[in-house]
Design goal:
Shape: elongated
Strand content: 15-25%
Order of helices and strands: EEH
Largest sheet: 2 strands, antiparallel
Number of strands: 2
Number of helices: 1
Distance between the termini: 40 Å
Structural class: alpha+beta
Length: 58
């Protein structure tokens, strides 16, 4: 059985997700949490740039 790298549980299937630019194989639950955390980080960075008046590219 494959093991999730995040929670170290044995699962039937692993899902590949990009986390901080690196691909990781995680269980579906951990993959959802990682995607949500990435989306929140992107949104907060975008909002911070908007508040600071940043008009360039990242």
């Amino acid at each position: 059985m494959p093991t999730c790298r995040e929670c170290n549980d044995e699962v039937a299937k692993l899902v590949t997700v990009k986390v901080s630019g690196k691909a990781q194989k995680l269980c579906p639950d951990c993959a959802d949490r990682a995607r949500e955390a990435g989306e929140i980080a992107e949104a907060s960075e975008g909002e911070m740039q908007r508040m600071m008046g940043f008009k360039g590219r990242r």
